[in-house]
TrEMBL record:
Signal peptide start and end residues: 1-16
Similarity-based family: Belongs to the peptidase S1 family.
Domain (Peptidase S1) ranges: 27-251
GO BP, sorted A to Z: proteolysis
UniProt protein name: Peptidase S1 domain-containing protein
PANTHER family for the chain: AT26814P-RELATED, POLYSERASE-RELATED
Biological classification of the source: Eukaryota, Metazoa, Ecdysozoa, Arthropoda, Hexapoda
GO MF term set: serine-type endopeptidase activity
Species assigned in the record: Exocentrus adspersus
Superkingdom of the source species: Eukaryota
UniProt xrefs under SUPFAM superfamilies: Trypsin-like serine proteases (SSF50494)
């Protein structure tokens, strides 16, 4: 059954596809890493509790998954940046505004992206934005990508304190649609993972976290089936398909 990759610490339960609930964003089969290698990684906090991943894309804007806010925008919403640890270090900044993509559809999890405006810029060294690709920048089949986050390292486990990373290949749209059904995989989505192998994946509590190819933000952790299942890769929001919206918002705020 399809399930949303949601931050369970905030939501308690996931809201999913047509009839489904999905795990979200834990890094399975990866290894510990340091924030200096991924200075764009953010941790979204509600009352100091981690609930979703995020990505710094300018001095005062970040991006995450829209479905992180399906149950409303929590009070005391803040973001931690510049830290390898989800619960300490770096710098914590208030989030002043959340803008979900205007075409976001919670029923099919399409356009699963939300921009978050920070109250101010980070001053710590290891908080730096990643480059947003141009509209329709190509994502090639079998291209290797890096996914990072603080989710559990095994299915059913809790999120962990130290930032994790895992390398996964991009899956062709044909194979992605074959697995999940063409009605569930739109052109604003793509799959990445090890078909027929599994074991390395994104899963719970890191929805909205980054999938990076080279030096660009190619995807956001969105949804999938299980964690690291051999025939079910994770599904990501295709950032190049929404980059015009991202850049328009940033331009309107004079923050590019």
């Amino acid at each position: 059954m399809l399930e949303l990759l949601v931050g369970l610490a905030l939501l308690g339960a996931a809201r999913g596809l047509p009839s489904s609930n999905l795990p979200g964003g834990r890094i399975l089969g990866g290894n510990s890493t340091d924030i200096s290698q991924h200075p764009y990684q953010l941790a979204l906090l509600s009352h100091n509790d981690f609930f979703c991943g995020g990505v710094l894309i300018s001095d005062t804007w970040g991006i995450t998954a829209a479905h992180c806010f399906d149950f409303g925008i929590p009070f005391n919403l803040r973001v931690r940046g510049g830290s390898t640890y989800k619960s300490s270090g770096g710098e914590v900044i208030d989030i002043d505004e959340v803008l979900r993509h205007p075409e976001y559809n919670a029923q099919i999890v399409n356009y699963d992206a939300a921009l978050i405006r920070l109250a101010r810029s980070f001053t710590v060294e290891n908080a730096k934005p990643i480059r947003v690709p141009e509209l329709n920048h190509p994502i090639h089949n079998h291209e290797m990508a890096t996914v990072t986050g603080w989710g559990a390292t095994k299915q059913g486990g809790d999120s962990i304190e130290v930032l994790q990373q895992v390398r996964v290949p991009v899956v062709s749209m044909q194979n992605c649609r074959s697995v999940y059904g063409s009605e569930h995989i739109t052109n604003v989505m793509f799959c990445a993972g090890y078909l027929g192998q599994g074991g390395r994946d994104a899963c719970n509590e890191d929805a909205g976290g980054p999938l990076v190819i080279g030096d660009i933000l190619a995807g956001l952790v969105s949804w999938g089936k299980g964690c690291g299942e051999r025939d079910y890769p994770s599904v990501y929001t295709r950032v190049p398909s929404i980059s015009n919206w991202i850049l328009e918002v940033l331009e309107r705020s004079r923050d590019i």
